[in-house]
Amino acid sequence: MPIRIPSDLPAQNVLSRENIFVMDTQRAATQDIRPMEVGILNLMPNKMETEEQFLRLLSNTPLQINVDLIRIDNQAPKNTPKEHMDAFYRDFDEIANKKYDGLIVTGAPLAHLAYQDVKYWEKMTVVMDWARRHVQSTLFSCWAAHAAIYHYFGQHRVLRDEKLSGVYPIEVQNERDELMRGFDPIFYAPQSRYGEIPIEVYQSIPELSVLASSAHTGAHIVASNDKRLVFVTGHPEYDPESLSQEYHRDMAANLSPKIPVNYFPDDDPSKPPMVKWRAHGSLLFTNWLNYYVYQNTPYDLESLSR
């Protein structure tokens, strides 16, 4: 079954060319089932690229999914046309009374700002508290994962001296958890961040379990015992060229970035990158939707409570 998105969302054409089944609103209305309701709070500057990445991952499931694109900052992002935001995004206040089976909160390039200095931090705290009452399971990605750990558990991140950038081997720590079902013992995932929360901090929180980690990246996937919160510190949604684009952007800005680890053959940025994370990225989101969302969410979303 497909994801359901607006008929004229540009991501629909991209996904269709990749033979990914997407359904527009008119066709979905003829199916007599209760679709899953999933929101994506997109904090990235390039909204359209991030939409495609996460919608691609959500598409690999037998469930029909209605997707709402959500914004909390009314300022037009410099990398996305205002017309696109106005046409396809809903302000958080518009959906604040709605309940969702699942919510994805993306990362954001805010590593060097204190949380309180982020212009929409106050609204972020409102959303995170709202999610505990209105969402069956919320998946926080990269910066959002660290922000949520700070908000829910009062634990601070630290900043690395150098950016963690590359595709790193990750080891499954709890193969019995449904989120890790079907994973190889060692899998790969892109990383692109300065922030880090030591693994010992996660392990000290009784409500949380570290499901996958590595010596290079620390904790990679962490989940609450009630399956309502998932924290992913890397970027399984990344396209093959995402790290390359970041590297060349930083080179052009004279930031002297290091070559992403385990990414370019022979560490040669002129060569096409090696892609070895997409299958497990897809599996992660399939497992999340099935075991953390669908298998636990009530049929009547209005009965959802903390």
Describe the structure.
This protein has one domain: Rossmann fold, CATH 3.40.50.880. The relative contact order is 0.14. Helix 1 (10-17) packs across helix 3 (47-58). The chain has 306 residues and is an alpha/beta fold. Helix content is 30%, strand content 25%. The longest helix is centred in the last third of the chain and has 17 residues, at 278-294. It is globular and about 55 Å long. Strands 1, 2, 3, 4, 5, 6, 7, 8, 9, 10, 11 and 12 form a 12-stranded mixed sheet that branches. Helix 6 (121-134) links the parallel strand 6 (100-105) and strand 7 (135-141).
Tally of DSSP β-strands: 12
Distance between the termini: 29 Å
Strand percent estimate: 25-35%
In round numbers, the mean pLDDT is 90
Low-confidence stretches: 27-32
CATH architecture: 3-Layer(aba) Sandwich
Number of helices: 10
From the helix content, strand content and strand pairing, which structural class follows? alpha/beta
What characterizes the major β-sheet?
Answer: 12 strands, mixed
Helical amount: 25-40%
Write down the secondary-structure element order: EHEHEHEHEHEHEHEEHEEEHH
State the domain count: 1
Report the CATH C-level class: Alpha Beta
Q: Would you give the CATH topology?
A: Rossmann fold
Spatial shape:
globular
User: How would you name the CATH homologous superfamily?
Assistant: Class I glutamine amidotransferase (GATase) domain
Radius of gyration computed on alpha carbons:
19 Å
